[in-house]
Write the structure tokens for this entry.
Amino acid sequence: MTGFAGGCLCGRLRYDSDGPALTAVNCYCTDCRKAGGAPMTHVVLRPADLRTTGESAVYESTADSGGAMRRRFCPVCGATTTTDIVARGLITVNAATLDDSSWVAAKANLWVRSRPAWAPLDPTLPTHEKGFPPRA
Ligand SMILES: [Zn+2]
Ligand SMILES: [Zn+2]
């Protein structure tokens, strides 16, 4: 998969990318869970590789690492579509908002220490207690 597109529930906030996605991860952190209403699977890419169009609002919070996280969401329907991980120079797309997410395959489980017991976990994936492991 190279290019992909998606958007919020009501369609006012859209994004697209020529790709390629760097990776995909399942995140069990409390912030993702609250923002998305469930644990989130993210497609990870560079900010320059994503285009956003339409109305949006940004909620900025501080990650466990101390870096800024900017979650972009639709001011009308409230769906969170992307998160800018400023310190990492990465942006993530909430895979649940993709028009076609059939190609997404998570490569790791992150923030498992925050996982609620009801959230299913793929035991075959590398699992990390906290966030993105240091880049190799
Ligand atoms: Zn919307
Ligand atoms: Zn998270």
Summary: The chain has a mean pLDDT of 93. The domain at 4-114 is CATH 2.170.150.70 (Metal Binding Protein, Guanine Nucleotide Exchange Factor; Chain A). Residues 111 and 130 are 4 Å apart (CA to CA).
